[in-house]
Amino acid sequence: MQAGGTLSWLGLALLGLGFTTGTGFFLGVSIAVEKTGFSVLLLFILAAAGTYFVYDALARMIAQHAEQGSFKAYSKNAFGHWAGFNHGWMYWLSEMLILGSQLMAIGLFTRFWFDQVPLWIFSAGYAVLGVVVVFLGTKVFEKAENIFAVLKITAIVMFIGLSILVMTGVLSKTHDHMHTPSGAGEWFTQGPMGMWTAFLYVFFAFSGIEVMGLMATHLKNPKDAPKSGKAMIITITLLYIASISLAMLLAPLKRFNPNESPFVTSLKDIDFMLIVHIFNGVLIIAGFSSLVASLFSVTQIMHKIAVDGDAPHILTRKTKRGLPIASLVLTVSGMIVSILIALLLPKKVYEYITTAGGLMLLYTWLFIVFSSRKLLKMSVWGHVKSFAAIVLVLAAASGTVFDRTSRPGFFASLILVLVIGIITFILRKRWKGERPNKPI
């Protein structure tokens, strides 16, 4: 996938909306609301800024020199083979850990309608559908994600419109469903520490920008990559803040819980069950969209890992249409293991594993920022943005240390990073003599 493709900057922005608007927002943000109340809106602004700074760093490297493998390739160019090895495997492993939870979430959403069907049937079914979409090629993947993006954004806009009609009395004669914050206790449910521990879950709502970076190599003009990211992140941030603030105004804070989407909670509170069913369908679409994006990205990254000699050579094989079929088979195998782990492990243990995967994804974002500092000639504003990104990402990751439910996941992520580091140390002699590329 080289520069000079057929994708417009607006098309990439739309794809980005599809990649990022997943279960991290539609479901995971409930955890943040529970921990910090209305101050979650401030966290969304901070997370949006951090996400933009990370993507902007990646986009500017793409604008200078679009390269297959995207963020993994830039890490290798910046610091040498060891960095590309670490970045690639860290990303692949993080997504493998997360895939199982995505499939479990979609299965649980579907059981809202079919509660007698075993969960594993839904998980396996969505896994097969996701593989089919990826197998059909990049063009089908783009079209599918565009459709998913439109459906998800339409649902959010519909929720915003419905909320306004309820609050203004058009659909309700009373204002019983107006729950404005009455004091500091609702702005900061668990105080400053609650905000800190909630930050990670808000950041998860923006995960997917790395997939957008992979697709940026299809742009007609790679220099449009920064513009696409800016348009996408501004749009999604405004929609996120508007919709979640309205959800918190429609239902009492005590009603929100980690096992239910905040939008379903608020719609149930105003007794709009038809819309609840519609939103349940949106949750399934959102989860499936994220699943397909993850499958696509890890397959592409594994192919790049193999091309660089950091995985068995058989994984470089492609079909006549250019699909890295061997890498896809490995990804499917990893996904099957992830599903089995999700189904067999105790709930708490599996939560630790998926948290570890999410944290490792944030670590890959740090690789992107540090690579840009090495490869790009940066202005003063560029240095400010990169330092801000590092601080915000580290703040989100470190908050898990102070949360007893996510602390084990934090230490698990460090163990996984340590294992990759030990393997890197063992293989260092193979890369001896290689030199990082010069700044682009």
Question: Would you mind describing this structure in some detail?
Answer:
The chain has 18 helices and no strands. It has a single domain (9-431), classed as Amino acid/polyamine transporter I (Up-down Bundle). By secondary structure, it is mainly α.
What ranges have pLDDT less than 50 throughout 5 or more consecutive residues? none
What is the CATH-assigned architecture? Up-down Bundle
Average pLDDT, rounded to a whole number, is 84
Number of strands: 0
- Domain count: the total is 1
Radius of gyration: 21 Å
Order of helices and strands: HHHHHHHHHHHHHHHHHH
Q: Give the helix/strand class.
A: mainly alpha
Instruction: State the distance separating the first and last CA atoms.
Output: 19 Å
Specify the CATH homologous superfamily. Amino acid/polyamine transporter I
CATH level 3 topology: Amino acid/polyamine transporter I
Number of helices: 18
Question: Which outline best applies?
Answer: globular
Percent range of helical residues: over 70%
- CATH class division: Mainly Alpha
Largest sheet: none
The share of residues in extended strands comes to under 5%
Main location: membrane
Subcellular location: Membrane
Membrane topology: Multi-pass membrane protein
Keywords: Amino-acid transport, Membrane, Transmembrane, Transmembrane helix, Transport
